[in-house]
Amino acid sequence: MKRDGKLSGVLHMLLHLAETREPATSETLARAMNTNPVVVRRLMAGLRKAGFVASAKGHGGGWVLSCPLSDMTLGDVHAALGAPPFLAAGLRDEQSTCLVEQAVNTALGSAYAEAEALLVARLHGVKLSVLAEDFHHRMQARGLSPKDFHHDV
């Protein structure tokens, strides 16, 4: 079963944007994320609508953060992506007339909804600035400084 990596990928792009001084083009972000620039533009559109990024066209244009990482949570970014479901598991037949399947659906549906709600609540408690701090600690632990960061994004 293929996992949806949109949230992870967008978080990666946002952290890269926080480390760069210049706008990053969709093409540059796409190369860094091993995807297509159209995919990057689609993902970033929701972030722009939420006020997290801005873009400029033309020479010297590209994507930039439009608010500090401390103003964004993982849950906010998830919501900006359209709040895709986290759980790949689902019900076999949601409209079943079978009473056994209805009982199964009630139990599983309730458990799935509770798990999603808990995860979303936890994500809203984590600011992106915490991820950036973790990244900086990891760089320091390896004896690297921000100037050693590869600004290919």
UniProtKB/TrEMBL annotation:
Coiled-coil features, chain-numbered ranges:
none
Q: Which GO terms describe its molecular function?
A: DNA binding
What keywords sit in the KW lines? DNA-binding
- What InterPro entries does the record point to? Tscrpt_reg_Rrf2 (IPR000944), WH-like_DNA-bd_sf (IPR036388), WH_DNA-bd_sf (IPR036390)
Q: Name one Pfam family in it.
A: Rrf2
**Is the DNA-binding keyword given for this protein?**
yes
The molecule here is called DNA-binding IscR family transcriptional regulator
